[in-house]
């Protein structure tokens, strides 16, 4: 079993910083400690002149199962300074190009972090889902703002209200991913594209990204905070407690009396 320090790997090469999710035994679900490590890595990459591009990647069979559900039960993020919310703010304001290589399930924040990436490559086994309602909570990471913009309102409402997975080809069709490839080629493709970007003018890349993201810049941070306040409150309510307990007990949740 990996120690917490190895659950996130950070590698730097040729101007590209790569953050690898490395908690495969728990399907790369994110603990508070992992969010802190990722936020630190984003802060360092932002400040480090040698980093020009950032890449997120997981395993060939799993990108991320989202937030660690036992953490939701035992260590819920109820205040804005919780590691998850710090990570989301770092993600939303990261000024350099950010790429992701997604294979296998991308659940919850595993999908919503992609809304902040500039380029997304997917293995043909990628499955995206945002099952917040199924867990008795609400959208996070600005997804209530970004999902309708990126997917269109009705697709976003379907993905966020029903919470059912959609596959790589559907994600390609709506523009959530740039290209779909065999899973074994996905990380290599993202690295190849990252290296191309790293060879370009950083000032030009950053100014282009700033302009591309300008429309949402202020509203996005306000929305992330508003979602976080609702999410934190809902974590303590009976529906979420039933959903998380059911997951840990490997049974279907019973919302009939809630
Ligand atoms: N938090 C904590 N543990 C998790 C987890 C999560 N989000 N997702 C998976 N795990 C753990 C399982 O409890 C299991 O642990 P165990 O071996 O000690 O029993 C292990 O990872 C393997 O998970 P399993 O469900 O058996 O794998 P699978 O291949 O059948 O399914 C997923 C993979 C990702 C589809 C499924 O694990 C899943 O739906 N996870 C929950 C996703 C979720 O709701 N995330 C929260 C979003 S806000």
Summary, kept brief:
It contains 11 helices and 9 strands.
Give the tags:
258 residues, alpha/beta, 2-enoyl-CoA Hydratase, Chain A, domain 1, 6-stranded mixed beta sheet, 3-stranded mixed beta sheet, 11 helices, 15% strand, globular, binds coenzyme A
How far apart lie the N and C ends? 37 Å
Number of helices, counting only DSSP H or I runs of 4 residues or more: 11
Gyration radius (Cα, Å) is 17 Å
CATH architecture: Alpha-Beta Complex
Uncertain stretches of 5 or more adjacent residues: none
- The succession of helices and strands, N to C, reads EEHEHHEEHEEHHEHEHHHH
Rough outline: globular
What is the highest CATH level, the class?
Alpha Beta
Structure characterization notes:
The chain has 258 residues and is of the alpha/beta class. It has one domain: 2-enoyl-CoA Hydratase, Chain A, domain 1 (Alpha-Beta Complex), CATH 3.90.226. 47% of the residues lie in helices and 15% in strands. It is built from eleven helices and nine strands. The chain has a six-stranded mixed sheet, sandwiched between helices. Strands 5-7-8 form a three-stranded mixed sheet. β2, α1 and β3 form a beta-alpha-beta unit. α1 runs parallel beside α3 (83-93), α3 packs antiparallel against α10 (217-235) and α5 (143-151) crosses α10 (217-235). The longest helix has 19 residues, at 217-235. The structure holds coenzyme A. Residues 26-27, 29, 65-70, 105, 107-108, 131, 135 line the site of coenzyme A.
């Amino acid at each position: 079993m990996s120690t917490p320090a190895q659950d996130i790997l950070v590698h730097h090469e040729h101007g590209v910083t790569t953050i690898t999710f490395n908690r495969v035994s728990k399907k790369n679900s994110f603990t508070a400690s992992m969010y802190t490590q990722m936020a630190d890595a984003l802060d360092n990459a932002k400040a480090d002149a040698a980093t020009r591009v950032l890449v997120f990647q997981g395993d060939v069979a799993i990108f991320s199962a989202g937030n660690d559900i036992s953490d939701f039960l035992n260590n819920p993020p109820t205040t804005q300074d919780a590691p998850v919310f710090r990570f989301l703010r770092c993600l939303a304001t990261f000024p350099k190009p950010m790429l992701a290589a997604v294979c296998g399930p991308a659940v919850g924040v595993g999908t919503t972090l992609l809304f902040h990436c500039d380029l997304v490559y997917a293995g043909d086994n990628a499955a995206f889902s945002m099952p917040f309602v199924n867990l008795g909570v609400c959208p996070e990471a600005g997804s209530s703002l970004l999902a309708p913009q990126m997917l269109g309102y009705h697709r976003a409402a379907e993905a966020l209200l029903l919470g059912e997975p959609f596959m790589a080809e559907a994600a390609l069709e709506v523009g959530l991913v740039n290209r779909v490839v065999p899973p074994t080629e996905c990380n290599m493709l993202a690295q190849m594209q990252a290296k191309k970007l790293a060879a370009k003018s950083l000032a030009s890349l950053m100014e282009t990204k700033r302009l591309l993201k300008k429309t949402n810049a202020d509203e996005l941070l306000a929305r992330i905070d508003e979602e976080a306040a609702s999410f934190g409150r809902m974590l303590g309510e009976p529906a979420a407690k039933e959903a998380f307990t059911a997951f840990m007990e490997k049974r279907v949740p019973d919302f009939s009396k809630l």
